[in-house]
Amino acid sequence: MKLTYIEVGQIVNTHGVRGELKVQPWCDSPEQFLDFHTLYLDGAPVTPVSVRLHKGNVLLTLPGVEDMDAALHLKNKILSVRREEMHLPEGRYLNAELIGLTVLDSATGAAIGSITDVLVYPANNVLVVRGAKEYLIPAVPSVIADTDLEAGTMTVHLLKGMATDEN
After folding, report:
1. pLDDT tens-digit profile of 4-42?
2. Rounded distance between C-alpha atoms, residue 11 and residue 79, angstroms
3. Distance CA 22, CA 120 (A)
4. Running DSSP on this structure, what letter comes out for residue 72?
């Protein structure tokens, strides 16, 4: 199922004394944060006054946040964007959209479980699927046959050794 809002980062601290916020981005790359024109904070839309990158984090200034005290009140808040504002190539999905999908075996059509987590590694992501067994499934095109967010399913080619209790 497609999400309406996607969490894209968390305010982790202040930066300086003029109300700038340090945000830990949860995007594919911190640069992606620069494309967001409207953020949602506690469900309310806010348009950043300024956004810049600094040491792998995002420094953000929001309207009405003009000093460190005002910025401190926002610490640990989550920032979101509307899903429709994120432009992903065909066949690319956000990790948050994959959580909860029912995973089907392409050979039998049987449900093997649902995605409970996405582990991010440099080579490729790994899907944690829990059902009768736990599976660690590499998120690569040769393994993932189909993803249907509307139906809430992902079809995969299971290989020997993907279940955590198999040798």
Report:
1. 888 889 999 999 999 999 999 887 678 888 888 999 999
2. 7
3. 23
4. H
pLDDT band with cut points at 50, 70 and 90 for residue 165: low
* Residue 129 CB partners (closer than 8 Å, separation 6+): 103, 112, 113, 114, 115, 116, 135, 136, 137
* pTM, entire model: 0.70
Task: Assign 76 a pLDDT band (cuts: 50, 70, 90).
Answer: very high
If we measure between CA atoms, which residue out of 18, 25, 55 comes closest to residue 39? 25
3-state secondary structure of 21: strand
Tokens 């599976």 belong to 135
SS3 content of the chain, % helix, strand, coil (to 5): 10, 45, 45
3-state SS track over 87-139:
CCCCCCCCHHHHCCCEEEECCCCCEEEEEEEEECCCCCCEEEEECCCEEEEEC
Residue corresponding to tokens 């497609």: 2
